[in-house]
Write the structure tokens for this entry.
Amino acid sequence: MKKLGVLLLAAAIGLGFGSEAAIPNAVAADSVTTILPINLAKGGTVTASGENGEHQSRLKAFDQFVFSKWLTFTSPAWLQYEFATAKIVNAYSITSAEDAPDRDPKNWVVKGSNDGMVWTVLDMRTNQSFAGRHQTNTYSFVNSTPYNYIKFDQFVNQYENGGLLQLAEIKLFGDETQTFQSIKPTVTASGENAPTDVKGNLVDGTSTTKWLTYNNTAWLQFDFGEAVTIDGYALTSAKTTNNSPDADPKSWVLQGSNDLASWTTLDTKTNENFRLRHQRKHYLLENNTTAYRYYKLNNIQNHSGWTVQLSEVEFSRTNDLWHAVNPAIEIQNLAGFTPFETALPNAEQEILAIVRKVNELLYLSPADAPLEVKKILVKIEDSGPVASMGGDSELKTLTFNSQHLAGVAANPNQSLRDEIIGILYHELGHAYQYGNFDVEALTDSLRFSAGYHDRYSVAQGGSWHTYGTANFIRWIEDTKHRGFIRKLNEVSLNTYGLTEAQIFAWKESQFQIITGIPVSTLWTQYQQSLAPSL
């Protein structure tokens, strides 16, 4: 019997980044419904009593980008938002800026109007404070009247001295919501290696476990308990004692059914190769619009030998939580490097699929992300670094160096597609990450987690902060503390005025704060898990 769990995020609107809210893990065939409040403050007109040029203008208060801010030099100040059409607002959130806590709002009045002249007081706050930088405070009030204008009036700073006032973001909420479902399907299989390598491991959310059957041909069936539409799926290779790919799936057929009798073929794959262990390969279903209750990976054949194995099977449902992340993707192949298009024939949708997975690795929910990226421009140029990411919430620009890609394409021992996807995990991590613990190590841990770096080629040696930090982070996630990457992405330190020693001590402390284990102990255990240096 299917159970239904409901997580109503609207009850704590704008939970914001760093919240302790948990989305429950569904058991087999259970469904979890997540309701996300819709931020109404998009596409309107913003006016204010003052601002600091374009870079800290009134528009920054509503740009869905926590790393920007609105700053005005005098207070009391006011900030007004005009909707295109009248909206019912009964809650809002304010996020503090990155520095100067004395500039945080302390008192304010929220008003509504339909003509910009006659105002109704909706909410009044005094003696408010923010626990930290980029801290989101949420407020609600009773209102059922739609208004064309919402105004934050009589803003004063913490000192009430008439001086500078600033904030990073304001979001406005009403009764409009988005609903998403997370379903963990029931799995049946042609066989399994009980009690360790069982079918349930395929949907347990980690590639450190696996399903294995002693046969060179197998099938797997997934029951979602209700008809669901998918636009893609992903398979992750499993670990073997000798890191051999022999037991990896080489070919299969994906089918859908609503009665277990009539099956529709949705995808067929042949000659697939997983070059690394724990490698996650995603596959698009470009034209599927039919919902099926049952999905089956049929006629799974290995490369050689008498076993078939996988660590994870994922389905991208069109109403799942991560489809709330939906930036526009544009490709500009300025270098005319056609192998890129061959490696990623449907690049826009492939990149979007990775964007959603990156967000899942970094955040528990899209509501926790401190920014909403509207567009990602991917450029292939014939100069510059291997890859780079820049921009703000309006536009992120990811640049590939075609010369690097050409070198990979010319090497018979490398896969251009795998290299592009690996770079995407890393660079898209930069587009969405929050924390500043170690921005490069954190994003490269995503590439390790997705299996686009070889975790087993990392040798012993060095120290946690100078050698192999990314794989060390991945190892803690897999073996010591599930959710470690998300927690590490939550932490941020304002380094202004701090010494290198103070910054280093802060970084060291985060390991024990999150895991309860000193970093020195973790590093020693990690080193013991690695191959000895040659």
Q: What stands out?
A: The mean pLDDT is 92. The longest strand covers residues 77-88. DSSP finds nine helices and 27 strands in the chain. The radius of gyration is 25 Å.
